[in-house]
């Protein structure tokens, strides 16, 4: 039965991740200055596939556990915020608003990790790489804003 839950959570992850195909980085992002530690482009799909598998596993493990209400609510919140960042940052080209979404995502992932841990420690552990990745993404988002202040300001006005 856990495999049915896993498939449902994985579908939710890939639905959120599909925004990357709908709103690809494109020439606008390529022209931006980025920090030297920016991960290579090939790493993003590899990292997100791995993270989505971990997230789905965490969700499935928690779903079959008792007293999972808060963990499931927070899981739903984080996946919604996960799916929001790409359209905001790449689609609308709103770097500052993207950072706000990422900060909310970080808080929801951290809260999810704790709530999942309380239900099933393996589920909580499966969210640790996700929190690390969202931390790196937040630092990258902030660095891109700082390295491109005129672009960030221009796109915040419109």
Keywords, please?
158 residues; mainly alpha; 9 helices; 0% strand; elongated
Large-scale geometry: elongated
| Helix-strand makeup class | mainly alpha
Please tally the helical runs, counting DSSP H or I stretches of 4 or more residues.
9
Helix and strand string, N-terminal first?
A: HHHHHHHHH
How many whole angstroms does the radius of gyration measure? Answer: 16 Å
- Share of helical residues: over 70%
Low-confidence stretches: none
Overall mean confidence score, pLDDT: 95
Alpha-carbon distance between the two ends: 49 Å
The profile of the biggest β sheet is: none
Strand content: under 5%
Number of strands: 0
How would you describe what is shown here?
Helix content is 82%, strand content 0%. With 158 residues, the protein is an all-alpha fold. Helix 5 (69-91) packs antiparallel against helix 6. It has nine helices and no strands. The longest helix is centred in the C-terminal third of the chain and has 25 residues, at 95-119.
